[in-house]
Amino acid sequence: MGCDSKKYAIREISEITGVKPVTLRAWQRRYSLIQPERTDKGHRLYTQAHVETIQEIQGWLAKGIAIGKVKELLGNPDIGPDPDAVPQSLEQVEPMLSALAQLKSGKVDSMVASLFKDYPLQQVENLFIAPVMEALMRVKGSSRSIQKALFQSVMISRLSSIIESENKAAHKGHTLVVNLDAAGSVYAWLWCMRVAETGQRITMLDGVDDASGLLEIGVTFDQLSVFSNRALPEATKEVIHQLKQLWGDKMLCSPMIEHLG
């Protein structure tokens, strides 16, 4: 069978492109961006042409283009927006900040759920989560802590739910993910989500303050993934060094830890 006629199931196309099946379905149903073929039993089948379309969609999203505006740009690179006018955040940022200020938890959760369906994780993190977190840091008074807590609570709940779903379809091994920051770090859960998207089943340890216990468990998982977004004490750095010797290339580290060498 020739390359042009090869057909891919939705899980295969997800692994090839890095776009979750739920997002691929949303791009089809809500935005008519992709129209896969169907088997006799109704299962979606994708071709190389679909792969190229998905990659083009990812390119536009990476530039900050809203998913609802991508369709008119597909196949028309010459009509793209002025690079200087491309937004640095998604249009949902301002409505989210308004919902947080009013403590409308239902609306916050609904918006977050929709974003994770419509956009790949990288775009959600770079063009939505980061701008919202930065804006919350500028909120004055005690309301900053309240709004940040609501946002973190909803985000972690949603990420945990997605990871649980990913675990049911995982088929590439079992990874122990360890967060060395305080429990409830959105960025730790985003790191965990990225590992889950590689097809690994996840066991998450959130808020580990003494990493030395990891040396006692030995290599009992297929991978060890360690996250920290802060400077670590010397004792923890030494533990990290020993863990790297023990796990070798089966240990994944967040950028802050990787810089320890």
Structural notes for this entry:
This protein is of the alpha/beta class. It has three domains: 3-85, Multidrug-efflux Transporter Regulator, Chain: A, Domain 2; 93-163, no CATH class; 170-258, Rossmann fold, CATH 3.40.50.2300. The protein has helices at residues 10-17, 21-29, 48-62, 93-101, 105-118, 121-137, 143-169, 186-196, 214-217, 234-247, 255-258; strands spanning 37-38, 44-45, 174-179, 201-206, 223-227, 251-253. The strands form two sheets. It has a four-stranded parallel β-sheet with strand order 4-3-5-6, sandwiched between helices. Strand 1 and strand 2 form a beta hairpin. The longest helix is centred in the middle third of the chain and has 27 residues, at 143-169. The radius of gyration is 20 Å and the shape is globular. The N and C termini lie far apart (47 Å). The mean pLDDT is 92.
Please outline the helices and strands.
Layout: H1 10-17, H2 21-29, E1 37-38, E2 44-45, H3 48-62, H4 93-101, H5 105-118, H6 121-137, H7 143-169, E3 174-179, H8 186-196, E4 201-206, H9 214-217, E5 223-227, H10 234-247, E6 251-253, H11 255-258
Structural class: alpha/beta
Count of individual beta strands: 6
Q: Any idea of the CATH class of the largest domain?
A: Alpha Beta
Output the CATH homologous superfamily of the largest domain: Response regulator
Sequence of secondary-structure elements: HHEEHHHHHEHEHEHEH
Distance between the termini: 47 Å
Question: Which ranges are low-confidence, i.e. pLDDT below 50, for 5 or more consecutive residues?
Answer: none
The largest pleated sheet is described as: 4 strands, parallel
- Total of DSSP H or I helical runs spanning 4+ residues: 11
